[in-house]
Design a protein that fits this description.
With about 70 residues, the protein is an alpha+beta fold. The protein is built from 2 helices and 5 strands, in the order E-E-E-E-H-H-E.
Length: about 70
């Protein structure tokens, strides 16, 4: 399972890097990773990071200028 809050790249893979194109909105199964990603949003950073098990890299935040990390 890929957890909600994970930064996702254009290939649909978790990317805690500057390659991220959005933040996964819902949990998805890796076999069929079709879901909604957030490109313009306000995100509770602490909750999102706790859910996905990652600490967002500064490059992720820079790659997503329309996402407000609070």
């Amino acid at each position: 399972v890929v957890k909600a809050g994970s930064p996702i790249d254009a290939d649909g893979v978790v990317a805690n890097t500057g390659d991220a194109i959005g933040i996964l909105l819902y949990d998805v199964v890796e076999d069929n990773p079709q879901a909604t990603i957030l490109k313009k949003a306000y995100i509770d950073t602490a909750k999102a990071q706790a859910n996905c098990g990652l600490t967002y890299d500064a490059a992720v935040k820079a790659a997503l200028p329309m996402v407000v990390f609070e």
